[in-house]
Amino acid sequence: MNFLTEIGVFFGAALLAGLVVFASMHLAHRFNFLDAPDGERKSQSRPIPKLGGVAVACAFSLIVLAILFGTSQKDELSLAAGVLLPALGLAVVGFFDDKANLNPYLRLVFQASFALVAWLFGTQFVLTGVPALDAILFVVWVMVIVNGVNLLDNSDGLAASTVFVSAIGASIIALLFDQQLVSLMAIALAGVAAGFLFHNWFPARVYMGDSGAYFLGFLLAILAVRLRPEGVPSLAGIGIALLLVALPIIDTFYVVSKRVMNGIHPFTAGRDHLSHRLQENGRTVPGSVLLLQGISITGASGAVLIALMSR
């Protein structure tokens, strides 16, 4: 595999995602699958299609199949299936959550279940040496990142640009250590995020919904664990994973801790995220997103630097 392959996969994924998302916008209008303004948390001026996440999941799945059968990676089918199938399952949960607003505890049960499926398919880490405890920690990790990306989906372009930056970082690290399939899947994820971002940048013409946030967050969590740079100490490996998803973790900690201190249930929706604070202090929506991406870029750059220093 060479750099040109990575570039081809990125632009192919971006183009496909852009086209499929565009088609999903028309379907959403036809079937009234729209996110209407409510004058409070949803401050857009008109109803916005929210089938973008379904489109992203479809585009990414097609790209992964193309990678497997177009780059002689068919022997890695089980690895790809162990990542893609539970991600798609969680996207389906998100779709029904978008439609019916599922109980938050039920959502957590589904997230934990699909994380466990990924663990059983072979996406695992060893932190404590106790398999059951490591499995629990892995499930918690996936749930934190999935919900972190979902919480970031509060301003036009924020969640998608975060996934884009994190996936680029993961792809570079995987490429450095010759993890070809992981690198291709990560660059495909970056391309899909870029294709979606074309339609989702302020003012957004489409939303990803919970289906997209769950799908993208799950993939980020899994790919961060799938990165296994040879010779990297365990603590450095943990640091790489955490830095790649720094913004979702920081925003989640900020929101949850603030709500708990104020006696508000953590699952309560509200305009109390880092992006909202920046916007209340005079930043535009694009300005707040770009400023927060400084955290993502710094984190991803730090992860790549640790990987380079460990070679």
Overall structural domain count: 1
Individual helix count: 12
Number of strands: 2
Structural class: mainly alpha
Low-pLDDT stretches: none
What is the gyration radius calculated from CA atoms?
18 Å
Model description:
- It is a single chain.
- It is built from twelve helices and two strands.
- It is an all-alpha fold and 311 residues long.
- The chain has one domain.
- A two-stranded antiparallel sheet has the order 1-2.
- Helix 1 packs antiparallel against helix 2.
- The longest helix has 28 residues.
- The model has no long low-confidence stretch (mean pLDDT 93).
Task: Provide tags for this entry.
mainly alpha; 311 residues; globular; 12 helices; two-stranded antiparallel ribbon
Q: How do the strands and helices of this protein lay out in sequence?
A:
Elements: H1 3-30, E1 34-35, E2 48-49, H2 52-70, H3 77-100, H4 104-120, H5 131-152, H6 158-176, H7 180-200, H8 209-226, H9 234-244, H10 246-261, H11 274-280, H12 285-309
